[in-house]
TrEMBL record:
Lineage, uppermost ranks: Bacteria, Candidatus Magasanikiibacteriota
Source species of the chain: Candidatus Magasanikbacteria bacterium GW2011_GWA2_42_32
Identification of the protein by name: Transglutaminase-like domain-containing protein
Superkingdom of source: Bacteria
Region (Disordered): 1-23
Amino acid sequence: MRRDIDRDTSNVNFKAPEQTGRDFDNVSPLEIFREVSAAGSEDMAALDELDHNIGQLPPEPLKAAEAIRSHLIKEGYEYGNSFRLQDMLKKKQGNCLGLACLIGGLLERRGFHPEYNLLLGPKDYAYSREVELFEEFVQGDHFDFDNPIRPLVSEEINDFTFVALEHPILVLNGKQFETTDLVPESEFENTKPFEIKSERSTKISYAELASNVLVSRAVSELFDNPKPNYALARKLLAEAIRRWPNNREAYAKIRNLANNFFDDEQEETSRKKYLALGGDDSRFFDEKYSITHDPSDLDKVLERHPSYIEAYVDKEVYNETNHRNARFAFAVAAQCVARSQTLDLGKFYVYNSKKFAKLFGKEDVVRFIVSAAEDFKDFFSYNIALYELTGDKKYLTKIKQDGLITCPFQEAFFYYTLEHMNGKLPKQYQEKYRAFLEQYGNRRTFNEQWTV
């Protein structure tokens, strides 16, 4: 079971996002980048200084983009996880989204007209090596079938993803330009430009590209903060859709939020919109599986992306009836997650703790969770998992004292776990649970997810 549980301390009103409004074609790209980043005037001053120091650009678009990238390298910029304008300028680093917005915006300010493509599941060298490594694990090259090794911690070098990601690139005079090659020219001067293949390529505008900064901010708010704010995340996602009404991934995130609040109307609206937007890529079919639970969707995911670990776990662990096969597959998945720059090993162990315990024993699972989830931010799921595994009520005390139940989904999870662990819901919680059921018990999204 996937526990995509987010947290918040506020009440959330899920209203359908506005899809009309301002004409973003009349706003400069860098101003759009400033807006979606929530950057200030001082950040724009720093950006102006960066632009000034670049100097005159060559007239040929591709060479102009290379000149901007070379200047960023000279200034010490590196590939990193920043995507907001102010963070990129301060830390001198950026990811593919941030760098595409920055370099594209600088080019447009100088009178160039880059195009923007959003690649889903880029098939580059790292992907090829990822699939090779995955196949090595599946074939038993790294551990015996009956002695599957699970990692205690993530690997220090994690160059892979094991999931299909969106990757924006610039297109200049019909040629792709990769913004993330922030390495000295001497390190790639002998390499020839090549076209990055992908599962899906979508031509988008700058405003649509920048809307993903809002989506990324929402995801960061939900998963990188000890006490995330649901209301802010929802506001960011609604604004992302206002700027790009067909932003498929924003609808997926809104649906997840709606499920956590048992909001039938918003879940239905976002689900229907997501399915209507459609796709023929692994990420679409993975999300579709969470809606339909049709095993054929998992097959479609893995046909397109064999090393897509979440789909692999659903198929080879949760849908596998052979205990030995499931144990081996779980270990394969854990080894891959430990080498992923995107997935989190602690999260993997916590969210799959019940299955982990059935396959390897409760005592083993506790040791792995405590080791791998040291920096895990979802404190509710961490403590409820350890309570399920150990029966130690100190974890319940931690949940109550620290106010870790911050959305209806988590409250339902709490009652479900207490009932499961005690045979019935303890008396001191029965009145609260009755009130909870009065509010949520008749909602479709509640009944589809929980039955206590």
